[in-house]
Amino acid sequence: MEKGMRRLLSYARRAVDDYGMIEEGDRIAVGVSGGKDSLSLLCALAELRRFYPRRFEVVALTVDMRFDELEGGKRADYSDIESLCCALDVEYHVEPSNIAKIVFDIRKENRPCSLCAKLRRGMVNDTAKRLGCRKVALGHHFDDVVETFMLNLFYEGRLGCFSPVTYLDRTDITVIRPFVYAPEKDIRYFAAHAALPVLESGCPANGNTERESMKTLLSQLERGNKGLRHRIFGAMQKAGLDGYVPSRVRRYDGGESEEK
Known about the structure:
260 residues, alpha/beta, Rossmann fold, two-stranded antiparallel ribbon, 46% helix, disordered C terminus
């Protein structure tokens, strides 16, 4: 097994079991942006499919943002991702969109990430349903959970985060996040050693977002407060925030406690 895959599988299996993410006969669309997180999740679910007690199918789905339509933009090449999907025996679909043009040229958003994410999620969900998938898997990882919680606290003055499992009644789609236990460093390690075909983002706002600022702040704080991210995540579990309470709460100190 490739370096790092065993660890990612362990994280994914725990999350899938803890939150009941996969059921017998599921056809799951993995939202593949071309980044290390979504590509690693695709590989992990394709591997999990081989031995998980509930049989399920995996489909890879990319929404082409078409950043090439913006001034100075470059057309994305998904051929290497297609080759990876072929090797994994996974269907691959690329859905063209006008999202980049809407966000940057028409709406001219000063804070484009929120609208972009909303439009992209909507297109992923609609396309997944058209492809016969009732579930969509996203590559949000452990660090994303903590960063999102802190972003909501700092910028919106509220306690909240995305959930491990979310049912969307309007589209009849269930969104799952099997990497909520997986630290980014382990995903980065696997992606590098597996030589995944990671695409460089063509987004004009890439690297200049509130999330990047929060990532930097948390890294600085953790230098003097080792384990800070894990304590924040543990506090979310203890508070039962946004569905972060599995039937058996797994703590990062290695222990377990029954849900009260």
